[in-house]
Design a protein that fits this description.
This protein has eleven helices and 29 strands. The chain has helices spanning about 5-20, 135, 140-155, 180-195, 215, 230-250, 275-290, 310-320, 335-345, 375-385, 430-440; strands spanning about 50-55, 60-65, 80-85, 105-120, 120-125, 160-165, 200-205, 255-260, 300-305, 325-330, 355-360, 390, 445-455, 455-465, 470-475, 485-490, 495-500, 520, 525-530, 535-540, 550, 555-560, 565, 570, 575-585, 585-590, 595, 605-610, 615-625. The strands form six sheets. Strands 18-17-20-15-14-13-4-16-19 form a nine-stranded mixed sheet. Strands 5-6-7-8-9-10-11-12 form an eight-stranded parallel β-barrel, surrounded by six helices. It has a four-stranded mixed sheet with strand order 22-29-28-25, covered by helices on one side. A hairpin with a 2-residue loop joins strand 28 and strand 29 (about 615-625). The N and C termini lie far apart (about 80 Å).
């Protein structure tokens, strides 16, 4: 038997023997089980005791001494701690049991200490195939798109990464045709995103269509579909051409540009030799071409969309750092507890903005959020660690991942904000969590120093350009104490609105986000004694509540010659609503009575919209199908 283990056992036996010999019955309250290893407390009682022996951070046992487990070895050089506590009893002889005082959760906020000077909020990725031939053939239509636009508007997405293929606009080298089915679909997305105030990042050169592989792809590669461009000069000119075209159409929300996807791997971008060096050459070529065309100062270039390789970013920065403006990288399965240290590795490379342009936390296919693998944990730690923005993979599912319908596959995963409309369009918890956060953290907010006490809680604080303060506090389900104290370094003297997200939120078609649940006054501190049990995200903000429109139905059917009566309500606000048909055919009266077009066929759809009269960007949509 290991000498150190034997020593621990003998010491425990001696202590227990002496306690049994001199123990007295008293009415002292029992110690909690599973205490931190620093609490070396021995209760003076003649009852049974629990023993736990810790070596470093590894718990060896926490059972009754008669069941003590010797299955794990200690290293001789390790320290160990012996903790003995009296187990709780169902009753207490000789008097009432004393109340156990649980530790309070305290959030200490230093508004004067900025840890991130510009936070651009939450965004997402869109592969615009839903508006292309294969999905239209399957039934995708403008009414479905109206529902998707409504949801993106509710989420207040700040940046969307749109994936673009060169063959959508350039079938022959140097000959540009922007009036194609694919480019029209792309422009429809950009137009919708402009309407709701969302910036666009173009990921240019993702995949290579078969129609251009003869001149675009590098000969001899295992998959020309994932080839890097063989002619970097031609590629740079294509980048300049699409930007000038989109800006010429008035799409001034196209503000960011990047190239290919995950070029540090072979699955989406491939060339011979040193891929990092070739990618750096490509970035330099584009930078030079945009400068030549006089448009370089209008676009923010991200590099390099890599996946899990900080070394790649470092090499790129050293070889072509003056040719791009911001870092971008991808990471999946980031445990919230380790996210902060991972992010800091990138912030140490340079003081330029860093975008987490693909991330998710539910890659196992489940739709359950929890403390060590959850969106808000990554968002909290990322914001505190210097991330400019974080873009979820993906905004929505796509039924057919093909422009033509051949070799198609469905892109549908639980980490998306919602499923493809053709697969039911169900929302996921990430939609409600990220949407709630985004509505109360304004673009360009500062992130200030925020530290927590009491365990099982993490937090971040944001101050908007207009001076509103928003505090995110995430509590683990294991947190016994359900109260939170916010302590500021100065008097705030404002009223905070409170919002709650819990894992049992109803994911329905409406897309309605959690509304305010109350207000709390704050001087230099704020105390909240009513925090729901279980894993939860609590938002405290001085920003006025975002008004939402509720409908009597969000998905309904009506007979061809019938009528559908809809009613609307207002959440966190007041006013009146106006009705309109957003997409499809038919008419709607001022009091919400919809009638299909007289020539409508069974299966035809319309999107009926109810807007707040005083703010037409506050609205809701009902998808109506003709029976």
């Amino acid at each position: 038997m290991n000498f150190k283990k034997m020593s621990a056992f003998l010491l425990a036996a001696v202590i227990l023997f002496n306690l049994s010999a001199c123990g007295k019955n008293n009415n002292s309250s029992p110690n909690e089980k599973n205490k931190a290893s620093s609490a070396d407390t021995i209760s003076d009682s003649g009852d049974d005791f629990d023993i736990s022996v810790n070596s470093g951070n590894s718990a060896v046992g926490n059972t009754g001494y008669e069941d003590f487990d010797f299955g794990d070895d200690f290293d001789i050089g390790d320290d160990f701690e012996l903790n003995i506590s009296q187990p709780s009893k169902d009753n207490n002889e000789g008097g009432e049991e004393e109340e156990i005082v649980l530790p309070k959760k305290t959030v200490n906020i230093k508004t004067s200490k900025v840890v991130n000077s510009f936070y651009d909020g939450i965004g997402g990725n869109i592969v615009p195939y839903s508006l292309m031939t294969s999905n239209i053939k399957l039934g995708y239509n403008d009414s479905y798109f109206a529902v998707e636009k409504y949801r993106m508007n509710k989420m207040k997405l700040n940046i969307v990464r749109l994936w673009v293929q060169v063959d959508w606009m350039e079938k022959k080298k140097g000959v540009y045709d922007f009036d194609t089915m694919e480019m029209n679909a792309l422009c429809k997305y950009i137009s919708a995103l402009k309407d709701i105030g969302t910036d666009v990042q173009l990921t240019f050169g993702w995949k290579v269509g078969s129609s251009i592989q003869d001149w675009y792809s590098i000969p001899g590669l295992s998959s020309p579909y994932e080839s890097a461009p063989a002619d970097l000069d031609a590629y740079a000119k294509s980048c300049s051409a699409i930007l000038k075209y989109l800006w010429g159409r008035g799409y001034n929300n196209v503000k960011h540009l990047t190239f290919a996807n995950e070029p540090n791997g072979f699955w989406d971008w491939e060339c011979y030799g040193d891929q990092c060096a070739y990618y750096a050459s490509m970035v330099k070529k584009v930078d030079a071409q945009l400068k030549k065309d006089g448009i370089r100062n209008k676009i923010n270039i991200w590099a390099c969309e890599e996946a899990g390789s900080v070394l790649w970013c470092k090499r790129l920065y050293e070889s072509c750092g003056d040719a791009f403006d911001s870092f971008s990288f991808h990471s999946y399965e980031i445990l919230s507890s380790s996210a902060e240290s991972w992010f800091k590795k990138l912030t140490e490379l340079s003081n330029r903005p860093i975008y987490l342009s693909e991330f998710s936390t539910n890659m196992n296919g489940d739709d359950i959020t929890f403390y060590d693998r959850d969106y808000c944990g990554v968002l909290i730690n990322g914001a505190k660690s210097g991330m400019s923005s974080m873009l979820n993979w993906c905004v929505s599912g796509v039924k057919s991942m093909s422009t033509t319908g051949t070799n198609s596959w469905e892109m549908s995963e639980k980490e998306f904000f919602w499923d493809s409309m053709l697969s039911g369009g169900a929302t996921h918890r990430s939609y409600y969590q990220c949407g709630l956060i985004n509505n109360y953290i304004d673009r360009g907010s500062k992130v200030v120093s925020t530290e927590t006490e009491g365990g099982a809680i993490r937090s971040a604080t944001f101050i908007s350009p207009s001076g509103d303060i928003t505090v995110l506090a995430e509590l683990n389900s294991s947190a016994d104490s359900r109260n939170i104290t916010l302590k500021f370094d100065k008097a705030i003297n404002k009223t905070f609105y409170k919002y709650i997200f819990t894992d049992d939120i109803s994911c329905d078609y409406s897309g309605i986000l959690p509304g305010t649940v109350g207000t709390l006054k704050c001087g230099s501190s704020l105390y909240d004694s009513k925090v729901e049990k279980g894993h939860s995200l609590v938002i405290y903000t001085t920003k006025a509540p975002v008004t939402q429109i509720s409908l009597s139905s969000y998905k309904a059917s009506v007979k061809k010659n019938g009528e559908l009566k809809l009613t609307a309500g207002i959440i966190d606000g007041s006013g009146s609503v106006v009705w309109s048909v957003e997409a499809g055919k038919g008419t709607v009266t001022s009091d919400g009575k919809y009638k299909p077009d007289p020539n409508a066929n069974s299966g035809d759809m319309a999107a009926v919209r109810a807007s707040l009269e005083s703010d037409r960007n506050t609205y809701a949509v009902c998808l109506v199908t003709v029976k």
